[in-house]
Amino acid sequence: MAVSTLYLDKTTPNRDRRFGSTTTYVPARVFRADGTSVVCLLTEGAIQAAVTRGDANPEDVRAFLAEERRDNIIAVTAISTAALLAIVAIAWCAL
Description:
By secondary structure, this protein is of the alpha+beta class. Helices cover about 55% and strands about 15% of the residues. It has helices at about 45-55, 60-95, and strands at about 10-15, 25-30, 35-40. It has a three-stranded antiparallel beta sheet with strand order 1-2-3. The two termini are about 40 Å apart.
């Protein structure tokens, strides 16, 4: 699944802060291919570096967006199919 979301308004404080370190992190859950996940703490600098990397590699961003669109189409099709089956089941019960 290509969908990835990072909420920049969700931060957690750096509780054991050292001199010169960031005051807050942006937490994110990273899902691995085997289904396990870990929480990572990203700094604003790390996020900005990733944004800059995306800007510098538009061909890779386009590939991600294409996969995301494909996943969305599949999800909408699955929901539409489920809704149609529910309508058919209700109509069948009404007979």
